[in-house]
Amino acid sequence: MSGPFIDDARVAEARAIASEVIEPVFDLIRRNTTISVERTVLRLFGMSDAGPGGIPLTNLMTDRLKAAGVLSRGAAYWYGRALQLGAASPLDAVERITALPADRLKPLSAEMEGNLREEVRREAEAAVEELKRRIDERDALRQEFPMSPPPHKYVIVATGNIHDDVDQARAAAQAGADVIAVIRSTAQSLLDYVPHGATTEGYGGTYATQENFRIMREALDEETRRLKRYIQLTNYSSGLCMAEIAFAAAWERLDMLLNDAMYGILFRDINMRRTFIDQYFSRRICALAGIIINTGEDNYITTADAYDSAHTVIASQFINESFAKRAGLRDWQLGIGHSYEIDPARPETLLLELSQAMLIRRCFPDAPLKYMPPTKHKETDIFFSHAYDVMADLVAVWTRQGIQLLGMMTEAMHTPLLADRYVALKSAAYVHRAARGIDEEFTVREDGKIANRARFVFDKAMELLEECRTDGLVEAIGRGHFGDVKRSETGGKGLEGVLEKAPDYFNPFLDILEGR
Amino acid sequence: MAGDPQPLRAYGDRRDDGVIQLSFTLPVPLSDKAKEAARQFCAKLGLVDVKVAAAEPAADHYTFFIVYARADVSLDYAEIEVPEMVFKKLDFDELNKLIEEKIARRVVVFGACTGTDTHTVGIDAILNMKGYAGDYGLERYPWFEAFNLGSQVPNEELIRRATERKADAILVSQVVTQRDVHKDNSRQFIDVARASGVKGKSLLLLGGPRVDHKLAMDLGFDAGFGPGTKPSDVANFIVHALLRKMGKEPQDLHYEGEPR
After folding, report:
1. What residues in B contact A240, CB-CB < 8 Å?
2. Of A76-90, A138-152, B14-28, which range is least confident?
3. Is the pLDDT confidence value at B1 over 50?
4. Which domain holds residue B119?
5. Does B64 touch chain A (CB under 8 A)?
6. Non-local CB neighbours of A115 within 8 Å, separated by 6+ positions
7. Which residue in chain A is spatially nearest to B228 when comparing CA positions?
8. Are residues B97 and B59 in the same domain?
9. What is the pLDDT of residues B188-221, one digit of tens each?
10. pTM
């Protein structure tokens, strides 16, 4: 069993503190919007094409509205204005709006305003219904072809070319993968737009585009039917376009998204305000679409030391959970992230890793949890590397991880070869099969190393949570408490895309997603 | 250079048996025909006594093979020439003391993962306090002043910042190697370094999983560091190279292995 180790009351207290920690951030979220949230609104209305030069229509329209100083009223409002001007298509709407001189963008009469909003709201409701219908299709396929039991074996494809990715993803599914992640092209997170169409050139990965999502999901639907086992698809809702990616993923029936409330701030130097606002809207979409999010705490311990900073992972997980719950996500959608990263040169690392994974299972009993393999201390000795990964397989099944990203023996060298995935999948299937139920056979002694270490880490996490409550989350991030990375509230990329909402700000999707 | 010939063959479990292992995938379904194809493939590589030890269905249309075979090739080890970094490796305290005594100021080092690369794991391992595999990073050395600019730093910016502080050494880390982007970016770095006049002034070091000393030298760097490099290797190289530049150390010092 993954212990009590900690009193229920203490776990509840951690949760209560986390919710206090994030409260001030919600003030910011309520008062502001971002250019990428507004682009998402337009995408929800069906504006998914690109204009001349491949620039997404959503960017053309929001950039124009921002330049005219009127985006703070909400893109939905201006979409309505374009319809009123007789726009016949999204491109037409963009052209009509961008052709207007700034003085023509003034308010209408109260009655006209009311009618316009009513009409746009009805259209938004219809758009959400259509989205839900697509999600239902995905859910029906999941019902028809159940998944393998967890831990769901998760592997990455990263060729840069979506069509090659499809070949590799099919092969991985045939070899036993349950989840396929298409890793994104290097630095896509810093693009302030979502590239358009099918792409065949990427570095270190493949661009996340709506068309690429569609192509991959279609291939995996085929494999699902052939293998009679549902194959999940995931991508990355992070960076400057969190919410737009969440929409594209929901529309194309993806199953999971990497989505973290703080990852962009810490590891991509994206502005704090921008990230907090974007993550909320993106998570609202995930909540509606039944998408499982994967949080990124594993990254903390690739920069900071996994042994010394174990408590930062726990504290951040409570914060991430709190943000997620406020955005309407349910426990089964929380792939809370962590990893097997303690330096293998230390003694007793299996006990330490078990302790950490058991502690997380203890704190988040109803969440699937997302377990990441060793990366930081990986060696180019593939035989050692393989043995190292297998230990993570054991901890994953022992602590009932819902999702396990499998380590690749060539981790420190190159993007995985097809055979690397096969070898990892075969071994993980063996370890999971061999050790399933092991947690019910062995009770972890409450006075032993595992329990004591768990209590120590939890106590330090509580101290950090209390510090975040006292000093504020912004200050805690500024001090480098998470991942040893220091960021300031007004630093980083994308702050210029944050806008204070006008008093008559209009976003019918936010209302619908929040159940209003 | 070349003395007596030293014939060299692979070693399996006895001298000169030439036994090697290899694994590869062929894009065909697993079958006896596929196994025969794997055997013939190895024969075409010049291998003999080919044993296809494992043929695994990696996917419906892919078979993964593990093969043991003998390679009859032999080469003369005495004729192999590789430019090697030669220096006498000192431990943490000895190296700090050497800087204090012979350079008498802190050695300034700038590093970054430049270009589009977002992976700081390499540069962090070398520069950050924590270091790698129990070996302290350059930030920890009192006689080094190390600046880690992080990832996605333009080459121009790294050089500008390093020049402002008259850096003794500039470290470029390149982790992403798809389509040789690391080489293209490294060449661009050297172009900028030449144009700005920093080449020849500061030591230019390249590091990454697909980097070796020879590649780095070919690209125009002063040294290259590949997988398994420890911060102390880089620290030692920098200090000894500086001392040689200053004429305070002979050119023919030899690497004497790990310090005790």
Report:
1. none
2. A76-90
3. no
4. 92-245
5. yes
6. none
7. A379
8. no
9. 999 999 999 999 899 999 999 889 888 999 999 9
10. 0.84
CB contact under 8 A, B62 and A171: yes
Tell me if A327 is assigned to some domain.
no
Cβ distance A56 to A240 under 8 Å? no
Domain assignment of residue B252, yes or no: no
Q: Is residue A43 part of a domain?
A: yes
Query: B103 with B146, same domain?
Result: yes
- How many angstroms separate the CA atoms of A89 and A513, rounded? 25
Please indicate if any CB of chain B lies within 8 Å of the CB of A89.
no
Range(s) of the domain holding residue A91:
33-144
> Are B178 and A345 inside 8 Å of each other by CB?
no
Active-site annotation holds for A63: no
Residue of A77, A193, A263, A371 marked catalytic: A263
Does B256 reside within a domain? Answer: no
pLDDT of res. B260? 33
Out of B76, B111, B129, pick the residue that ends a domain: B76
Tokens of A341: 């990263």
pLDDT reading at A20 higher than 90 = yes
Determine the average pLDDT of the residues in A84-104.
79
Q: Look at residue B2 and tell me whether its pLDDT is greater than 50.
A: no
> The tokens 């013939």 sit on which residue?
B40
Asked, for residue A72, whether it belongs to a domain, the answer is yes
Burial of B104 (0-12, 13-18, 19+ CB in 10 A): exposed
Q: What are phi and psi of A372, to 5 degrees?
A: -105, 150
A182-202 pLDDT per residue, tens? 999 888 988 999 999 999 998
Q: Which of B35, B130, B201, B245 is catalytic?
A: B130
For residue A301, what is the nearest residue in chain B, using CA coordinates?
B121
Pick B59's closest partner by Cβ from A175, A203, A204.
A175
> What chain B residue is nearest to A206 in terms of C-alpha separation?
B178
Extract the tokens encoding A17.
Answer: 């503190």
How many folded domains does chain A comprise? 1
| Cβ contact B58–A419 (<8 Å) | yes
Which range scores top for mean pLDDT: A162-176, A485-499, B124-138? A162-176
Q: Is residue A326 part of a domain?
A: no
Q: What percent of chain A has pLDDT over 70?
A: 99
Provide the CATH number for the domain around residue B14.
Answer: 3.30.30.60
Contacts of B134 in chain A (CB under 8 A): 343, 345
Q: Are B212 and B155 in the same domain?
A: yes
Contact A234, A259 (CB under 8 A): no
